[in-house]
Amino acid sequence: MIEFTDIRKVYGDDTVLGPVSGRIPAGGVTSLVGPNGAGKSTLLTIIGRLAEPTSGTVTVDGLDVHRAKSQDVARTLSVLRQENHFTARVTVRELVSFGRFPHSRGRLTREDVTHVDDALDFLHLGDLQHRYLDQLSGGQRQRAYVAMVLAQDTRYVLLDEPLNNLDMKHSVRMMAQLRRAADELGKTVVLIVHDINFAAAYSDRIIALRDGRIAASDTVEAMMRAEVLTEVFDTPVRIHEVDGTRTAVYYR
Amino acid sequence: MRRLPLLLATLCVLALVTASLFIGGYDIDLRALFTDPEARRMFLISRVPRTLALVLAAAAMAVSGVIMQMLVQNRFVEPTTTGTSEWAALGVLLLTLLVPGASPLLKMGAASAFAFAGALVFLVVLGRIGLKSQVIVPIVGIMLGALVSAATLYIASSTNLLQMLATWRSGGFSSVVRGNYEPLWVVGAIVVGLYLLADRFTIAGLGRSTATSLGLPYRRIMFIGLIMVALAAGVTTVVVGFIPFLGLIVPNLVSMARGDDVRGNLPWVVLSSVALMIACDLVGRLIVFPLEIPATVVLGAFGAVVFVAMILRQRGKAHV
């Protein structure tokens, strides 16, 4: 279980997040949604210990992620973030092998190789494994990074906007693969999604942030209601049942 | 079979090393080495140190380039495009003023300390302006270097050390003799260090977030890497002056051919930069024989062309 308590992030006089507290249970897919500047990304990067909170603590399965040894945290939790204006010229297989770094410190054992192979298979990257990252399309590269995270074999996987820059087809595939990672590999997946309907279609729980606070947090069923979403996104949202899924309509 | 290309490359470098040992103003051949004590003395005092200095300085610049490119996540950085070498020179000048007749070791300490500070200044400036463009980063570095150089020049001219500065900066390898190149051996330790930490530098090259997610102590690797670069650049600057572009073009050419696996690339990076350095030195020694053009000038001319070609190639890609 991920537990964050009284998390605040302050830049100068500007409080961008918090104080927020909450829990994300182990297992399943949890989406963080909310308008721009709501603090989703800040919360995710703090949980993933890529940023220090101004105050508050985060524990993952009892491990204090900001105080425990980075290597130990890296065996429990992995976090993937968009940051690449520089693409290292490593092959897909090399990248995925780096996922084993917290376990092997660079010397791959046979077990590590199995994990790498499995991760490549899981994301159908077998044919691309010897290609360099800078020879791939955005969607393929994104898949390679997700494979790296799966090879890291952590119980918790955090992703900051994994659908960013993906077209419709690749977005659907990515979400389906993350769903499978939760269902078949028992991962706890936490991700930021912009499209509320994507979140609803593939998640178990949704946490909605607004103005640096948690505006609502519940199962998809409970969250996909007109009054909740209208409030969160500050824009009129109607809910329609489409193919048995609650779908938000807010285009006009 | 996979080792074969590496073996051939090693033989090429050995051939160049041999050529460097036996070419020069004073005629020495293999037989003279055994029969003529004067030739042997000359060989040991001048030729061997010069060649070793070429090898070690080349390795130093190449290794610095690789480390900086991974840490800064930019293809175009190395000590001479980030101001690091210029800071080292400033350090040596200030030390010469404060402690006239300082030992070479002390000079190297000052040069390395200033190189380290300079690299930090560069990183802080980069962090402040938050650049996304690959091409602008080295331009910022070169501008910083020019500022530091100007300060160095001003101090030198107002203290009558201009001549010393000029001789030393363009000195290159012709003045290397036994007794003044030995500190370059520290480069050997840096190469070994890079080999041991290679994976960590490759991972650092994936960016701070990814590296942290993988449990890499990012700050520590950054610190260790900068220390290694500062030592390599400091020592090289003191012994042979600036060696432009070497740390930039060689790692990039190797990366284009083989990717960014730092450990696998290391032998190639070292061998190619040694080969290029010695080749430039030989050209410099032969075209105006018996006078010589400093190897760094030859390298600068060649390197500048490759640098521009690389920038143009980069512009063809999406990430600029």
TrEMBL record, chain A:
<dbReference type="Pfam" id="PF00005">
    <property type="entry name" value="ABC_tran"/>
</dbReference>
<dbReference type="InterPro" id="IPR027417">
    <property type="entry name" value="P-loop_NTPase"/>
</dbReference>
<dbReference type="InterPro" id="IPR003593">
    <property type="entry name" value="AAA+_ATPase"/>
</dbReference>
<keyword id="KW-0408">Iron</keyword>
<dbReference type="InterPro" id="IPR003439">
    <property type="entry name" value="ABC_transporter-like_ATP-bd"/>
</dbReference>
<keyword id="KW-0813">Transport</keyword>
<dbReference type="GO" id="GO:0005886">
    <property type="term" value="C:plasma membrane"/>
</dbReference>
<dbReference type="InterPro" id="IPR051535">
    <property type="entry name" value="Siderophore_ABC-ATPase"/>
</dbReference>
<keyword id="KW-0406">Ion transport</keyword>
<dbReference type="GO" id="GO:0016887">
    <property type="term" value="F:ATP hydrolysis activity"/>
</dbReference>
<protein>
    <submittedName>
        <fullName>ATP-binding cassette domain-containing protein</fullName>
    </submittedName>
</protein>
<dbReference type="GO" id="GO:0006826">
    <property type="term" value="P:iron ion transport"/>
</dbReference>
<dbReference type="GO" id="GO:0005524">
    <property type="term" value="F:ATP binding"/>
</dbReference>
<keyword id="KW-0410">Iron transport</keyword>
<keyword id="KW-0472">Membrane</keyword>
<keyword id="KW-0547">Nucleotide-binding</keyword>
<feature type="domain" description="ABC transporter">
    <location>
        <begin position="2"/>
        <end position="236"/>
    </location>
</feature>
<keyword id="KW-1003">Cell membrane</keyword>
<keyword id="KW-0067">ATP-binding</keyword>
UniProtKB/TrEMBL annotation, chain B:
<keyword id="KW-0472">Membrane</keyword>
<feature type="transmembrane region" description="Helical">
    <location>
        <begin position="295"/>
        <end position="312"/>
    </location>
</feature>
<dbReference type="GO" id="GO:0005886">
    <property type="term" value="C:plasma membrane"/>
</dbReference>
<keyword id="KW-1003">Cell membrane</keyword>
<keyword id="KW-1133">Transmembrane helix</keyword>
<dbReference type="GO" id="GO:0022857">
    <property type="term" value="F:transmembrane transporter activity"/>
</dbReference>
<feature type="transmembrane region" description="Helical">
    <location>
        <begin position="135"/>
        <end position="156"/>
    </location>
</feature>
<comment type="similarity">
    <text>Belongs to the binding-protein-dependent transport system permease family. FecCD subfamily.</text>
</comment>
<feature type="transmembrane region" description="Helical">
    <location>
        <begin position="184"/>
        <end position="203"/>
    </location>
</feature>
<feature type="transmembrane region" description="Helical">
    <location>
        <begin position="52"/>
        <end position="72"/>
    </location>
</feature>
<keyword id="KW-0812">Transmembrane</keyword>
<feature type="transmembrane region" description="Helical">
    <location>
        <begin position="108"/>
        <end position="126"/>
    </location>
</feature>
<protein>
    <submittedName>
        <fullName>ABC transporter permease</fullName>
    </submittedName>
</protein>
<feature type="transmembrane region" description="Helical">
    <location>
        <begin position="266"/>
        <end position="288"/>
    </location>
</feature>
<feature type="transmembrane region" description="Helical">
    <location>
        <begin position="223"/>
        <end position="246"/>
    </location>
</feature>
<dbReference type="InterPro" id="IPR000522">
    <property type="entry name" value="ABC_transptr_permease_BtuC"/>
</dbReference>
<feature type="transmembrane region" description="Helical">
    <location>
        <begin position="84"/>
        <end position="102"/>
    </location>
</feature>
<dbReference type="Pfam" id="PF01032">
    <property type="entry name" value="FecCD"/>
</dbReference>
<dbReference type="InterPro" id="IPR037294">
    <property type="entry name" value="ABC_BtuC-like"/>
</dbReference>
<dbReference type="GO" id="GO:0033214">
    <property type="term" value="P:siderophore-iron import into cell"/>
</dbReference>
<keyword id="KW-0813">Transport</keyword>
